[in-house]
Amino acid sequence: MSFLLPDAGLLFWMLVVFGIVFFILARYGFPAIVAMLDERKRLIDESVRSAKEANERLVAINAESEAILKSARDEQARLLREATAMREELIKEARERAGKEGEKMLAETRRVIEMEKEEAVRDIRRQVAELSVEVAQKILRRELSDENKQRSVIEALINETVE
């Protein structure tokens, strides 16, 4: 018996055992292995598809967020412009009101000053008139203390009024 050449009986039984093992594997083992490989392939394909969908959704969400940010920035810029315009308008109105109020106050102050000036002038005139009357009384008393002087003054006044 040689180590390199097997016997025909051994070869036959090896083929029978191989056939039985192959039949059992083909009947029960290979379908399970193929099913597991198919399931694994399906899971991998599904994972790849889900990853692609997630990536597409992420791109869409990024685009949408960029659009939202752009619109928010535009809205913010518009609101800032409106607020600036409103502030300028309010400042302008406040200045106009302050100017008008200042003019009113100035006119009122001028009117009050004019009235006080007129009152002061009347008061001065009244005081001057009183002083003039007092001075005239004193002068007339001194001048008219003599009876002859009184008659000459009365005659002069009568002549002035008659003429």
What portion of residues is helical? over 70%
C-alpha-based Rg, rounded:
64 Å
Instruction: Give the number of DSSP strands.
Output: 0
Task: Give the helix tally.
Answer: 2
Concise overview:
With 163 residues, the protein is mainly alpha-helical. Helix content is 93%, strand content 0%.
Provide the descriptors you would attach to this structure in a database record.
163 residues, mainly alpha, 2 helices, 93% helix
Describe this structure in words.
The protein is mainly α and 163 residues long. It has one domain (8-162). Helix content is 93%, strand content 0%. It contains 2 helices and no strands. The longest helix is centred in the middle third of the chain and has 136 residues, at 8-143.
Write the layout of secondary structure elements.
Blueprint: H1 8-143, H2 147-162
